[in-house]
Amino acid sequence: MFNTAIETVPPRTDGGAVNVFVETPKGSRHKYDVDDSGLFRIALELPEGVTFPFSFGFVPNTLAEDGDALDIMLVTAGSVPAGALIESRLIGVLKMENDEDGTMARNDRVVAIANMSRIFGAVETLSDMRDGFAWDVEEFFDTYNRMIERPFRIVGRGESDEAMAMLDKAEERRRAN
Questions:
Q1: pLDDT tens digits for 41-55?
Q2: Topology annotation, domain 8-171
């Protein structure tokens, strides 16, 4: 983890909300990563006409199986700025694999809803989202991976209970390190 104030943010609030730190805002053509110093760096530019369909970030002070913080796709009605910390709830997971050094490895995306969202306020699980939502996002990831010439495969989908179990394990992994 990098050396910034985000290191002091717990994965969950006292009220049980999940803290999501936004790296790449919805609508951006650029993928941002936070480096070890806490600065945002442009990691990738998407082709003309392609933007991130939702904000992407992570849950602070977690450690996923891939060695990074738990990845989150944050659903909001509009864009929020990079660097925003958003109280959220996990609604599901999009299960995916992509090439990591010649081997296909899981690179799931946990889906969260911003708690302040009025439009998505009633959504509790991935299956509550509009018809075609998960397929649309999977198509984005397929396009994104083809663009960077990385083998990619959809493995499945999971609901909020699987997403919460992933968060629990990522918190445990972080505490153990």
A1: 999 999 898 999 999
A2: Inorganic Pyrophosphatase (3.90.80)
